[in-house]
Amino acid sequence: MSIPPTVAGSPCFGPSVPLFMFATGIENSNPTVDGRRVDQMAASGHLHRWAEDFALAKELGCGFLRYGPPLHTTWRGEGRYDWGFADETLAALRAQGTYPIVDLCHFGVPDWIGDFQNPDFPRLFANYAEAFARRFPWVQLYTPVNEMYVCALFSGRYGWWNEQLSSERGFVTAMKHLVGANLAAMRAILRVRPDAIFIQSESAEQYHAASPAAWAEARRRNAERFLSLDLNYGHPVDAAMYEYLMDNGMTRAEYAGFRNTDLKRHCVLGTDYYQTNEHLVEDDGSTRASGEVYGYATIIQQYYNRYHLPLMHTETNLVDRPEADSTEWLWKQWANLLLLWETPIPVLGFTWYSLTDQVDWDTALRENAGRVHPVGLFDLDRRPRRVAGAFRRLIAQWSEVLPARSLCLRLPLAPLRPDIGG
């Protein structure tokens, strides 16, 4: 094994992988809603058309793919796994030279776990992560738990997914178990692959006050949006947030455990930004989407100034309609990245998510209506949308420009090790 990287400042281990990561992803959300499993890999047809999907990703020029096997069918019980689908698909990605950013848990757990209120989830998930790493020791890039903040909100406070609770205690419990599982999985993977790099995909949010009466609530929510990452990286929360955690089920010992984490040096701050990520807070504390007010570059500087980690834009898209051309959104997000490029902030990658259209995301998967959400680079018949051509051109035009700047920043991204197992 090579020496573990210090992501914030060590030199590159090798030039064989370009440091700027153009990526897309296969949407693999799998929460339960009213006891019904919502499987986006099945809904998009990927379970049967994965070879075609991988070929499309390669044709676009994407060297990286956010990807992971469906957790609820792969993890069959404590210490029991069905690796059949993962063996076949990951071998195919490796053969075609596409680097997976392996997404292990995306909004849902197997039925036998229950939900994110289960206090055993962190320990059990760490065992799964270690088993995965031993099965696929050539994999280096991971997102152990996707969008912990969003998952805790939707499952523990909004009452939409999984445990479907609508309480502050439900939210805090889901949050501490999701972050605890993420940290435990990172440690488990590092036991197998000491040079693993963790690209945490988390939603970048911003709350705006509609009036002075809403200002205090907007400030509270702007503190809360950092909570999953504060716990993940050992960053201290403010006094009001600490009191909130203590009042809603987190213990002093649990908080101290999060503060003492030592894994930040293995991490890249992956952040997701959509048109719905900015919110207007009304006088009564309710919120609604505000549309793009600050934009990605402004918001993400707040995250960088807090954590001082290399960045990757890990998700964005826009519904493709005649009145809302998704290619314009692609250009706008890329312009935001180029603005960051002019600052000292290290930017490692950009992702259009996902490769294909999704299903029922217009209601956050709560309705089983089978409505196609046209946000992909390709539709569900695998025909390219306008944004696919634009993304292909963007990659072709910029791929020879940006890696040189990344190398000047001397950020590490160790090449995947073809000499290790698998």
From TrEMBL:
InterPro entries: GH, Glyco_hydro_1, Glycosyl_Hydrolase_39. Signal peptide: none annotated. Pfam families: Glyco_hydro_1. Gene3D superfamilies: Glycosidases (3.20.20.80). This is Family 1 glycosylhydrolase. It comes from Roseomonas elaeocarpi.
